[in-house]
Design brief:
mainly beta; single chain; five-stranded mixed beta barrel; 122 residues; 8 strands; binds zinc ion; OB fold (Dihydrolipoamide Acetyltransferase, E2P)
């Protein structure tokens, strides 16, 4: 099976507390230490995930929030594309399952499962 190309992820790791950030901005919003740019593959594995049914006002529910262990970086909080209001297919989301970086959305980083088929929502 062919693997789809994975976008490079613009991540920044805190030199103080080690938290992973998806934007530069100079310093860590948590501890204030400088951030250091990291080159990572964009691949990761689901540490935990949860479907959010009651969303903040500006978001469509349901959507899926996940903690992803990003290869070479650390644990990040993100949303998983394709598992929200437009797609109820949850069958192959598993803890430990591989995900890949999709893009930075206005609501934060977005990942997707690596093996999701093109018509999984259709
Ligand atoms: Zn920090």
């Amino acid at each position: 099976m062919m693997k789809r190309a994975v976008a490079a992820v613009p991540v920044f790791s805190c030199t103080g507390c080690g938290r992973v950030h998806f934007g530069g901005g100079g310093s860590c919003g948590h501890c204030g230490a400088p951030l250091e740019e990291k080159k990572v593959s964009g691949r990761g594995n689901i540490y935990a995930f949860s479907v959010v049914h009651v969303a903040p006002e500006e978001m469509d529910a349901p959507y899926t929030l996940a903690l992803v262990d990003l290869e070479g970086a650390g644990r990040v909080l993100c949303r998983l594309d394709g598992f929200g209001a437009d797609c109820s297919e949850m069958g192959h989301l598993t803890v430990g399952g591989p995900v890949v970086f999709e893009r930075i959305s206005p609501r934060g980083p977005l990942f997707r499962t690596e093996d999701i088929s093109e018509n999984a929502c259709g």
